[in-house]
């Protein structure tokens, strides 16, 4: 019996090094998003000029997930090819909405791909799709690593949903639609943490106040979300639900057919040449 840690199920599985890299990246991401809420007013950490290292540090960690997955033999040439195709498709979908009124059709593809191809593949796919989409739309900036990390979480979460092998048909679509709606809302909720502490002049009921008790800043943050981004988050969630329920079965069948034909993780067999 092997002593290696069990891998998460999926077309591209997570080995121990991949799990470690993903855990480290997620932990760093949580800290990067949430540190202003715990910063003391005298520490100087509540200003955007004090935190450029957070933006620069996330990209190497995201790259480490890819490298660790390859090292765990979770990505062979066929998986890399599928990763490239799906990342290009996700990036191509992003300019269609360009964030207008929150209409971002790439979310539904990231959810369905993560469901079929597993949490490890999903995390890498979500991050790469957001990176490529940012290049297409000119959305490159200090927020981009945070977008990559958050989209990676969205797609990874779909791969962690229950019933991967047994749930099919309408029930699976309803599960994915419900998850897609929650993930689309959560994406906006989390991404707002990236810029909210650095936006001044919103008024005492909306602005971040460094050093204030955590519950007071959280109350201001929720008020900020309701006032500024909910009008984008709700349409994003509704579009994800509509696309999942209308196109989901077709896309799921196509992804599963491609996965079966690619035969991920199939052991290589070598036969001696015939005399």
Task: Give your account of this protein's structure.
By secondary structure, the chain is mainly α. The protein has 9 helices and no strands. The longest helix has 33 residues, at 230-262. The two termini are 37 Å apart.
**Count of helical regions:** 9
From the spread of the alpha carbons, the general shape counts as globular
Percent in helix:
55-70%
- Radius of gyration, CA atoms, in whole angstroms: 20 Å
Described by strand count, sense and barrel closure, the largest sheet is: none
The proportion of strand residues reads under 5%
Unreliable sequence segments: 1-9
SSE class: mainly alpha
Q: For the terminal residues, how far apart are their CA atoms?
A: 37 Å
Mean pLDDT: 78
- What's the total number of strands? 0
What's the SSE pattern?
HHHHHHHHH
How is the topology of this model organized?
Layout: H1 16-38, H2 52-71, H3 77-97, H4 106-117, H5 119-137, H6 144-159, H7 169-195, H8 214-228, H9 230-262
Helix pairs in contact: 1-2, 2-6, 3-4, 3-5, 4-5, 4-6, 4-7, 4-9, 5-6, 6-7, 7-9
What are the key terms here?
9 helices, 275 residues, mainly alpha, globular, 0% strand
Would you summarize the structure shown here?
By secondary structure, this protein is mostly helical. It contains nine helices and no strands.
């Amino acid at each position: 019996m092997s002593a290696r840690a069990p891998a998460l199920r999926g077309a591209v599985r997570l080995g121990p090094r991949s799990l470690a890299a993903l855990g480290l990246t997620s932990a760093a991401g949580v800290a990067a998003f949430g540190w202003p809420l715990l910063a003391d007013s005298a520490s100087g950490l509540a200003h955007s000029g004090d935190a450029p290292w957070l933006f620069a540090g996330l990209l190497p960690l995201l790259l480490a997930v890819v490298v660790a997955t390859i090292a765990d033999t979770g990505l062979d040439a066929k998986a890399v090819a599928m990763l490239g195709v799906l990342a290009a498709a996700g990036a191509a979908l992003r300019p269609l909405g360009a964030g207008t009124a929150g209409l971002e059709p790439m979310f539904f593809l990231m959810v369905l791909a993560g469901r079929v191809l597993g949490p490890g593949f999903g995390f890498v796919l979500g991050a790469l799709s957001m990176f490529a989409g940012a290049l297409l739309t000119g959305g490159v900036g200090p927020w981009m690593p945070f977008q990559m990390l958050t989209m990676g979480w969205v797609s990874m979460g779909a791969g962690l949903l229950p019933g991967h092998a047994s749930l099919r048909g309408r029930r699976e679509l309803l599960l994915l639609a419900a998850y897609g709606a929650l993930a689309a809302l959560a994406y906006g909720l989390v991404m707002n943490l990236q810029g909210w502490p650095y936006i001044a002049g919103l008024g005492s009921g909306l602005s971040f106040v460094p050093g204030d008790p955590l519950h007071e800043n959280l109350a201001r943050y929720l008020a900020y979300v309701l006032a500024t981004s909910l009008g984008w988050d709700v349409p994003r969630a509704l579009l994800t639900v509509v696309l999942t329920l209308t196109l989901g079965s077709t896309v799921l069948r196509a992804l599963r057919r491609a996965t079966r034909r690619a035969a991920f993780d199939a052991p290589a067999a070598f036969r001696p040449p015939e005399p």
